[in-house]
Amino acid sequence: MTNTLSPPYVFGAKIPGRGHQIKGIPCQDAYYSEFFQSSHLIIAIADGLGSAPRSDLGAQCVVESAVNAVTALMAEGLTDSRLLLRAGIVNARNDLFKKAAMEICHVRELACTILLIIASQDGIAVAHVGDGAIVVKGSGFIKIISEPENLEYANVVVPLTSDEWEKSLRIHESAEPIDCIAAFTDGLQNAALKKLNATYQPFEAFFNPLFSYSLKIEDTDTAGNDIREFLMSEKVRGSSDDDMTLVISVLRKNMDQEIV
Amino acid sequence: MKKTIPSSVPPAYPFTPTNIQTGGTAKDLLSQVDIAAPEQPHCATLLLLDTSGSMVESRKIDQLNEGLRFLKDEILKDELAASRVDIAVVTFGDGAVKAVHPFTSIQDFQPPLLSANGDTPMGEAILQGVDLIETRKKIYRDQGVNYYRPWLFMITDGEPTDMKKGDPKWAMVKSTIEDCEKNGKLLFFSVGVEPANMTLLNDLMPPSRGPIKLRQGNFREMFQWLSNSQEKIVKSDIGPGEMVKLEAPNGWGEIPAK
Predict the structure, then answer these.
(1) C-alpha–C-alpha distance, residues A48 and A63, integer Å
(2) The pTM is what?
(3) Beta bridge partners of B39
(4) Which chain A residues in 155-194 lie under 8 Å from chain B, judged by CB atoms?
(5) Distances (CA, A) of A185 to A44, A131, B71
(6) What average pLDDT does the structure give for chain A?
(7) What kind and span of H or E run contains B24?
(8) Is B156 inside any structural domain?
(9) Residues of B numbered 67-106 whose beta carbons fall under 8 angstroms of chain A's beta carbons: which are they?
(10) Burial zone of B79 (CB within 10 Å; 0-12 exposed, 13-18 middle, 19+ buried)
(11) In chain B, how many domains are there?
(12) Could you give the 3-state DSSP secondary structure of residue B127?
């Protein structure tokens, strides 16, 4: 127990979906994170659309662009989380268009979703375009802080490249202390969420052990490998044909949590 | 970070870690993760089939019956499609529209044995087909099941006997089809089998999706295309306003010039 990590820390993994592997398509998910002054953690994950042939490039572009834009603005002294998040998303979208020009392709070939998080011990703020979700654990609770977009059809998603991206943009903030965050792309939704009365809820038996594990890890490289192995297990991988990304961050830890 | 007023998020539920075995390594905890595995998303496909008297000629009704069994076998070959496709069958013939098979999973689908007789109440069949699909979508929503844009797949060898171009029924059916297309309520495909009135079908269908003329005897190939299309749908993800890219029906059908 004395070897477990002190927060804040972040780790994660992504795997290609079985459907993608069969078709020879690369994994179209991406994730990226940076610390700011060791007190704030900025995380982005993105899911390239299966119908967009270069969306793996798009996803990688947006996660780096969004996180780097936020950290740069924080370094200049900007503290308003809504402004930071919006700037991150807009920067990511602009970079997609630049990428399309460089690749000499239409920007829709790079289409992807994005989830952007700014977190610290004081709270969390997220911006979200498309599907996937963010679940957090606090003292005595687990809750979903950003749900997948609720469109009528299961295979339709609004990507950041769409003209409708702003209608899809959801920004949520929470000032209550958060212990752990789990952000994931839609490939993991079947495993991690249940749907009740048209709203999504975190599946307790998925997140309880996952967060308990996260509080007990000793190094993030090993933890990343563990998560990769976990995603590749028949139990998890069998729940969807799609690419999967899971990024976990621990912000706070109490002694009694470690005992639990 | 500036503290701001929390925006609305769904209510939390209590974290109850008491069932976790905590004594082992961290990785032991990971092995205890359980999977929600909620209901798969569903793709509802309603087959609207002409069973009027002329379908007896050239064994068309027999080929239709064989095609339904073939469709089931083909869809079941794909694991994902097998768990996501729902099928219903509505016939129009003998002056009546009959819901001969309700929506079920493809695994529970019992291909009916159809016989051909009488007139072609196509107008009424289209209206009832659209209603059945809307009802099915409501059931999905009530049960918290995600779904794809449903299909209404019509096969006819004639022309409607319950409406004529320009009469009130025709106007109602045409505006229903246009509304479904404009608002993305479902995907309506129509296939004309010789001697179907393709000109009339062309007038009925929306400009974006004209009727397809079945090449002589190509029922099996058409159902193969339908099975392949269902497989593409359940494995797709697209942006708003986009269509899933389907195979061209060249192998079994022709699209008349507008």
Answers:
(1) 11
(2) 0.89
(3) none
(4) 155-159, 161-162, 164, 171-176, 190-194
(5) 11, 7, 33
(6) 93
(7) none
(8) no
(9) 80
(10) exposed
(11) 1
(12) helix
Q: How far apart are alpha carbons A20 and A159 in whole angstroms?
A: 19
Residue B4: the pLDDT is 31
Q: Is B190 in a helix, a strand, or coil?
A: strand
pLDDT in tens, A82-103: 999 999 999 999 999 999 999 9
Sheet order of strands, A180-184 included? A9-15, A244-250, A180-184, A133-138, A141-146, B13-14
In Å, how far are A197, B95, B215, B218 from B56, measured between CA atoms? 48, 16, 17, 16
> Distance from first CA to last CA of chain B, Å, rounded?
61
Dihedral over Cα of A160, A163, A167, A171: its sign:
positive
φ, ψ dihedrals at B43, nearest 5°:
-120, 110
Structural domain includes residue B173: no
Does position B181 have pLDDT exceeding 60, yes or no? yes
Quickly count: other Cβ atoms within 10 Å of residue B143's Cβ: 10
| pLDDT range class, residue A198, cuts 50, 70, 90 | confident
Q: Report CB contact under 8 Å: B1, A198.
A: no
Q: Are β-strands B212-214 and B187-192 bridged in parallel, bridged antiparallel, or unpaired?
A: parallel
| Structural domain that includes position B69 | 55-89+97-151+180-191+203-254
Structural domains of chain A ordered from first start: 9-253 (3.60.40.10)
Phi, psi of A249 (to 5 degrees): -130, 140
Q: How far apart are CA B63 and CA B57, in angstroms?
A: 11
* pLDDT at site B19: 58
Q: Which residue has the tokens 């991150």?
A: A88
What are B153's two structure tokens? Answer: 């797949």
Residue B86 · residue B103 · CB < 8 Å: yes
Structure tokens at A196: 């009740």
Q: Hey, are the CB atoms on A155 and B239 less than 8 Å from each other?
A: no
pLDDT of B20 over the 80 cut: no
d(CA A157, CA A133): 13
Q: Judge whether A95 is closer than 8 Å to chain B, CB to CB.
A: no
Q: Return the DSSP state at A122.
A: T
Within a domain: B216: yes
**Interchain CB distance below 8 Å, A216 and B26:** yes
Q: Give the residue carrying structure tokens 């890890």.
A: A217
Count of positions (residues) in chain B: 258
